[in-house]
Amino acid sequence: MQPYFLPYPGYFALIARSDRWLVFDDAQMIRHGWVNRNRVLHPTEAWQYIRVPVVGHERGALIREIEVADLTWGKRIVGQLAPYRRAPHYAAVVALLEQVAARELPRLLDVNLALLAAICERIGVRFAPELHSELTYDRAKVQGPGDWALEAGRALGAASYINPPGGRELFDRARFQEAGMRLEFLTWETPPYAQGARPFEAHLSIIDMLMFLPPEQVRARLDAAQVEVATPA
User: In the prediction, which pLDDT does 230 show?
Assistant: First the structure.
C-alpha cells in the first residue's frame, strides 16, 4: 500500500489483518491524492482538507523522493482541528500529532510512516513496515498495476495477499492461485458514531474517530472488518 497521510480507518483495519506490511514507497506521487492530505470536520461546512505541504517536483517523482516544504505543518493542522476542541480525546490526539511534527522529518514518506506508527501504537495494532524499494525481485515481470502485489508477494513467499475491495478489477485471481497465493479483499464499513451535536459525516481521516472514541473502541471497530477470499472466475 502507498503510505497515505492520516488515512481513513479501513487502512488501519488492513494493517491489523496483515502479517507483513509492504510500503509502496517507490510508486509515483499522485497530485491531489491521499499521500499528503486527508479530510476532517470543518467548523461550518461538512469537511475540510488537512495537508502537509510538499516541495515542487516533477510529474514522475516517486513518493520516497518527496520533501516537506514547511516543517511547521503541524501547527497549521492543529489550528484546523478547532471543531474537535470539545471532543473527549482532543488533547491526546493533538499531542500525538505534535510529537510527530516536532521531529521535523524532511521527507513526506518519513512523516507518514511516523504518523502511522504513532496511531497504531495508540490503538494497539502491530506496525512493522517494510519498504518496497528495498525488496529485490525482477520488476520487468510487472506488466500492469495488479502485478506489483503478485510479484512482490512471490518475493516475500506470501501465502496470501489482502487488498481493499476497490482494487478488485486490477487483479487476475487465477494468476495469484497459480503462484500459490490466496487473493483476499477486506471490506470495512463506517458504523456511525457521535461526532458531537452535528450529523454524522463519513469517509474522514482516522483522526476523526480517534477524537470521539477511546482506543479500545476504535480497535474493536477495525477488527469487525470482513475478509472475502477471491476465487478464479
Answer: 82
Grid-cell match 470482513, residue found: 226
Unique residue bearing C-alpha cell 490526539: 93
Q: What local confidence, expressed as pLDDT, does residue 168 receive?
A: 86
Distance, in Å, from the CA atom of 210 to the CA atom of 41, rounded to the nearest integer, reads 13
| pLDDT reported for residue 90 | 98
Q: Are 6 and 115 in contact (CB under 8 A)?
A: yes
Q: What is the structure's pLDDT at 219? A: 97
61 and 28 Cβ atoms separated by less than 8 Å: yes
Residue ranges of the chain whose pLDDT lies below 70: 232-233
- How much of the chain exceeds pLDDT 90, in percent? 90
Neighbours of 40 (CB within 10 A): 20
Alpha carbon dihedral 68, 95, 17, 158, in 10-degree steps, equals 40
**Nine cell digits for residue 44:** 461550518
Q: Which residues lie across from 129 on neighbouring strands?
A: 21
The 10s digit of each residue's pLDDT in 75-105 is 999 999 999 999 999 999 999 999 999 999 9
C-alpha atoms less than 13 angstroms from C-alpha of 185 in its C-beta half-sphere: 13
Residue from 97, 155, 148 nearest 122 by CA = 97
d(CA 87, CA 216): 16
| Residue 229: exposure state from Cβ atoms within 10 A (0-12, 13-18, ≥19) | exposed
DSSP state of 133: G
Using CA atoms of 105, 109, 114, 117 in order, give the dihedral in degrees to the nearest 10: -170
